[in-house]
Amino acid sequence: MNFKSTFIMLAAAPLALAEYRPDAFAPIGVMGEHLHAKDQFMASYRYMNMRMEQNFVGTGSVSDGSVLADFMVAPADMDMEMHMVGFMYAPTDKFTLMAMVNIVELSMNHHRRDGLEFKTKSSGIGDSSINALLGLWEDNGGSLHAGLGILLPTAEVDEQDFIPGPGETRLPYPMQLGSGSWGIAPSLTFKQHHGNWSFGAQTSAKIFLDDNDEGYRLGNKFEFTTWAAAPINEQFSVSIRSTFSGWGNINGEDNDLLSLPVPTADPNLRGGSKLDLSLGLNFFESGTKTSAGLEIGKTIWQDLDGPQLGSDYWITAGIRFSW
Ligand SMILES: [Cu+2]
Fold first, then answer.
1. How far is ligand 1, taken at its centre, from the CA of residue 313, in Å?
2. pLDDT tens for each residue of 34-81
3. Cβ(191)–Cβ(33) under 8 Å?
């Protein structure tokens, strides 16, 4: 069968067979974007790194010096690394279960008003989730499914590190490993495959339902992402994606952070919204049902309650095995 007729056949194939094209999966940074055929399993690993290196107030960046005019300590830059392990299983063609666990590694550099610089770090298990994905519709290469996740409070939110001056200290909100709260995560995903290209869109939210052990609740998060992809041969596809996200300020506060003279300890300087553009590469090998993906994203606009460190660029790489 030649290349062209393969795609004509797959464009009309049901969802389970549509996996046999390299753009069948969304870009690797999109979660919960596919269902599996009955009795199919999948294990996945993703690595993500987000780099933040500029403080923002509203849509404009501000210098560390101007942050230091109001605070004794300014966050200078931050690296947020995540290792995400996922597992999927489909009891039926219309229903897929998905579990995800994250390991988080955070590191932040700071400038103090007197010129001293210091770094804080934290790492450990982040938030986890259990998700149900339900197929609502599929026809001619198009599909729509809904997701509902339960967010589990597996992340520690009392991480500490050494800070020059006060010594061993509770770290501010963005250096904690997750929400530490129960929550729900609804989503809706649409995908359409054509002969030589495909596109999709997903809207999703994270809604936190209770205060964590330190007496606060992270702001709810909303995301809308849309992508287009095209196979470049039988194993590789390329994609372009835009993602708009918004998240609220913190409800309540951690009493141990009240005296820290740094914007990251203020529960009202955590909200914001941003727009990211990303380029992706997907690989799919139908013999071993192994897929891999790489996505590199750049934040092109953000509006932050600040001073708050804004995202600069991010990278997600992952590999998935199904059987
Ligand atoms: Cu899967």
1. 26
2. 999 999 999 999 999 999 999 999 999 999 999 999 999 999 999 999
3. yes
Ligand 1: centre distance to CA 84 (Å): 14
Ligand 1 geometric centre to CA of 2 (Å): 27
The rounded Å distance from CA 287 to ligand 1 centre is 16
Residue 140 pLDDT: 85
In eight-state DSSP terms, residue 195 is S
**How far is 102 from 125, CA to CA, in rounded Å?**
6
H helix or E strand, kind and range, residue 67: helix 64-70
Residue type (1 letter), 266 = D
- Cα(210) to centroid(ligand 1), Å: 30
What is the distance in A from the centroid of ligand 1 to the CA of 86?
Answer: 8
DSSP 218: P
Q: Are 264 and 227 in contact (CB under 8 A)?
A: no
Q: Which domains does the chain have, with CATH numbers?
A: 3-322 (2.40.160.40)
What band does 24 get if pLDDT is binned at 50, 70 and 90? Answer: confident
CA 65 – CA 71 distance, rounded (Å): 10
pLDDT tens per residue across span 293-307 = 999 999 999 999 989
Give me ligand 1 centre to Cα 28, in Å: 11
* Distance (Å) from CA 6 to ligand 1 centroid: 22
Whole-number Å distance, alpha carbon 34 to ligand 1 midpoint, is 6
As residues whose CB is below 5 A from the ion ligand 1, the structure lists 42, 88
DSSP state, residue 187: E
- What is 94-126 written as a DSSP string? TEEEEEEEEEEEEEEEEEETTS-EEEEEEEEEE
Residues 202, 188 contacting (CB under 8 angstroms): yes
pLDDT at 313 over 60: yes
* 65 CA distance to ligand 1 middle (Å): 47
List the structure tokens of 249: 């300020």
